[in-house]
Amino acid sequence: MKSLPSFLVILAVCVLSFPLAAQNLVPNPSFENNTGCPFTGGQINLAVPWISPSTATPDYLNACSTISGLSTPGNFAGTETPLTGQAYAGMILYGPLISNYREYLQVQLSAPLVAGRCYEVSFNVSLAEDSDFAVDNLGLIYRLPLPVHPAPVYWSERPKSFQTGSSVQPMDG
């Protein structure tokens, strides 16, 4: 019977800590929910509620596409198996052909951030095989109202969460 109190303590800790479990505030984080399959480039808006906040054209790539260049894992940029599910977004983060051209993604969080609380942010990035350039600065901006820019150019606003100078380790697949 000595083990029964231990079991109850463990059970109580598990039950009491359940509400503390992490909550993902990013809707449709793996781009699986959609209003249709991509049939041309620049259709990130099919992965609701994701949008492009400018006139740039980030791509929505999904295995459901009948256009081989917009499918996964193989598409116009190379071959990359989605980390989860069958979809992901593709963006140009740097390119010298069009001065200052950048592609951005935007989504409204499912709940507001609370001042004073700590949040963990993570996302996965993969350099496409057919890329000629890579970036070592990638960040997130948290703000309301959601930004809108009339041109596909570099934004001068500095990210609040910022990753710079770290080596990106390649993953198979």
What is the mean pLDDT?
A: 80
By DSSP, the count of extended strands is 6
The assigned structural class equals little secondary structure
Number of distinct helices: 1
Low-confidence stretches: 1-20, 167-173
Strand order, sheet with most strands: 1-4
Radius of gyration from the CA trace? 20 Å
Element order, helices and strands? HEEEEEE
Tell the overall outline.
globular
The percentage helix is under 10%
Summarize the biggest pleated sheet: 2 strands, antiparallel
Write the topology of this structure.
Blueprint lengths: L2 H15 L41 E4 L11 E2 L2 E2 L7 E4 L46 E4 L20 E4 L9
Quick rundown:
By secondary structure, this protein is largely without helices or strands. It has one helix at 3-17, and strands spanning 59-62, 74-75, 78-79, 87-90, 137-140, 161-164. It has a two-stranded antiparallel sheet with strand order 1-4. Strands 2-3 form a two-stranded antiparallel ribbon.
Features:
single chain, two-stranded antiparallel ribbon, about 170 residues, disordered C terminus, little secondary structure, two-stranded antiparallel sheet
Structural description of this entry:
- It is a single chain.
- This protein is largely without helices or strands.
- The protein has one domain.
- The protein has one helix and six strands; from the N terminus they run αββββββ.
- The strands form three sheets. A two-stranded antiparallel ribbon has the order 1-4. A two-stranded antiparallel ribbon has the order 2-3.
- Strand 2 and strand 3 form a beta hairpin.
- It starts with a helix and ends in a 9-residue tail after the last strand.
- 13% of the residues are buried.
- The N terminus and C terminus are likely disordered.
